[in-house]
Recover the amino acids of this structure.
């Protein structure tokens, strides 16, 4: 079985339960959790974002930077708003004028985070660290990746309040994903915690989980990230045997530009002629899931897709809640989630499984689904494009369809440096040739847990390719990347809405997890072959 120490198992289960709240909450809700003060600050910062784009130009422009800026000490938000040109009009400020405005009214983005030395980071390595890594080069590199937790650990500064910050206060230390991020993120946190456990940083891992718990206590679920501008699904489908199944989709109740990318969204929406079409686009882009994106983002149709990966994650989390409820004596709750999970498993197999392709496929809903109570299943509505996410149910260790591993090997997804997110080369970051650490980890861990020697050998092959490309990129650049090009060993991934991100929490966590599971023998070459 995949290496997870028994006394860490419940921490991971609790983290999975929290992410269930994120998945079911973020997929259905939308907008920000705060009140009028939050909204006034966000309106101001979005106007600042727009004027900064006009002043500084699009080259290298980071829209998120401006909505992450706190108000400067003593600054009057009303005076700041009055000094900006009216929305949609007036001459653009000069670079000097914009710079002076920012210095007068706003503090630098990230200034509301304080350094937080993790107390449990043992250097150069903790006792019992990666006992099966015998290669000197691999071990030296693993120590450097382990040490990166120091640079990624933060604490929200004292006195952070909603009226002057979009950053949300948290009770403990937070591990940020990487260089371009100034807050905790929920999905990254799972792989961050996996890496922290390999690094024997149990207290820091616990604080990450307690931070997520604090968001649940305040807002009812885990937000996408610890910012006031982050927050957000069941569809009924009747199969050919007349059985009705309930599955989940992404659907943000949001019809405005995303605050962190407002200028980008507005630019894309400018291609659309009507306000109704623009609002539909804003809802789709806010709902966008980890599936392939079209070359033209204005054609996004996220809310019309029942995704394989989302339903697999929620199934796993329902099982974990069942376990915890039984553990704490909540037998009625445990039974409820047991029945819900069983129903979802049947639904995944009935609606998403494709026996011809021997993999699970995302399912397209008709455009009028909002008006339809139950949709009749149609095999032509299965999306036959191949994505790595089609194989995420392997991770659940609950599906034993023969041929899934054969289908993965023949899919065209596996390349010299890992598994591609999809076969579609659209120019978007969740497509070819990019590979992402979480997708490698979920598939590899699922194969290992299948229990067969053949599956484990295949899993180790995938992990070896991924470790080597991470190592090569690190030796050349000195950084760990958010994503990698699976065609070229040592090349970082590209495309998407923002520049390359380094750091990087989930990449570090996955590499450390792979080295713990498979080791690295003394004679095994770690450089690109």
């Amino acid at each position: 079985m995949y290496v997870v120490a028994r006394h860490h198992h419940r921490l991971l289960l609790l983290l999975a339960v929290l992410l269930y709240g994120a998945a079911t909450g973020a997929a259905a809700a939308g907008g920000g959790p705060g009140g009028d003060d939050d909204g006034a600050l966000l309106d101001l910062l979005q106007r600042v974002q727009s004027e900064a784009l006009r002043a500084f130009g699009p080259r290298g422009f980071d829209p998120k930077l401006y909505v992450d800026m706190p108000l400067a000490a003593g600054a009057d938000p009303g005076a700041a708003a009055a000094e900006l040109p009216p929305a949609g009009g007036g001459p653009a400020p000069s670079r000097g004028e914009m710079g002076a405005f920012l210095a007068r009214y706003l503090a630098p983005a990230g200034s509301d985070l304080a350094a937080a030395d993790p107390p449990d980071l043992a250097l150069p390595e903790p006792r019992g660290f990666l006992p099966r890594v015998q290669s000197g080069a691999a071990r030296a590199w693993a120590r450097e990746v382990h040490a990166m937790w120091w640079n990624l650990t933060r604490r929200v500064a004292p006195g952070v309040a909603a009226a002057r910050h979009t950053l949300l206060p948290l009770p403990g230390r937070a591990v940020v994903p990487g260089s371009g991020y100034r807050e905790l993120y929920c999905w990254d946190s799972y792989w961050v915690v996996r890496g922290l456990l390999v690094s024997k940083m149990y207290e820091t891992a616990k604080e990450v989980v307690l931070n997520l718990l604090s968001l649940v206590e305040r807002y009812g679920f885990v937000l996408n990230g610890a910012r006031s501008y982050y927050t957000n699904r069941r569809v009924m489908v009747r199969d050919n045997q007349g059985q009705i199944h309930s599955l989940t989709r992404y659907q943000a109740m949001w019809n405005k530009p995303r605050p962190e990318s407002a200028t980008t969204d507005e630019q894309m929406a400018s291609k659309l002629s009507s306000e109704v079409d623009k609002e539909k686009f804003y809802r789709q882009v806010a709902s966008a899931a980890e599936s392939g994106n079209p070359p033209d983002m204005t054609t996004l149709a996220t809310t019309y897709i029942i995704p394989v990966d989302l339903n697999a994650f929620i199934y796993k989390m329902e099982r974990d809640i069942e376990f915890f409820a039984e553990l704490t004596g909540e037998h009625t709750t445990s039974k409820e989630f047991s029945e819900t999970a069983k129903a979802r498993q049947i639904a995944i197999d009935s609606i998403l499984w494709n026996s011809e392709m021997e993999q699970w496929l995302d399912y397209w809903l008709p455009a009028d689904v909002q008006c339809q109570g139950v949709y009749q299943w149609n095999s032509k509505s299965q999306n036959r494009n191949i994505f790595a996410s089609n194989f995420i149910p392997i991770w659940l260790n609950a599906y034993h369809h023969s041929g899934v591993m054969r289908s993965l090997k023949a899919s065209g997804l596996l390349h010299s440096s890992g598994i591609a997110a999809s076969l579609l080369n659209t120019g978007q970051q969740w497509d070819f040739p990019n590979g992402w650490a979480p997708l490698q980890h979920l598939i590899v861990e699922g194969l290992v847990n299948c229990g067969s020697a053949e599956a484990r050998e295949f899993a180790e092959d995938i992990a070896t390719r991924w470790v080597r490309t991470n190592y090569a990129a690190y030796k050349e650049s000195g950084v760990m990347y958010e994503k990698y090009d699976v065609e070229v060993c040592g090349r970082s991934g590209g495309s998407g809405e923002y520049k390359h991100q380094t750091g990087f929490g989930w990449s570090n966590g996955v590499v450390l997890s792979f080295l713990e599971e498979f080791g690295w023998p003394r004679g095994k070459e770690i450089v690109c072959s």
About this structure: The longest helix spans residues 453-477. The CA atoms of residues 257 and 361 lie 30 Å apart. The longest strand covers residues 234-238.
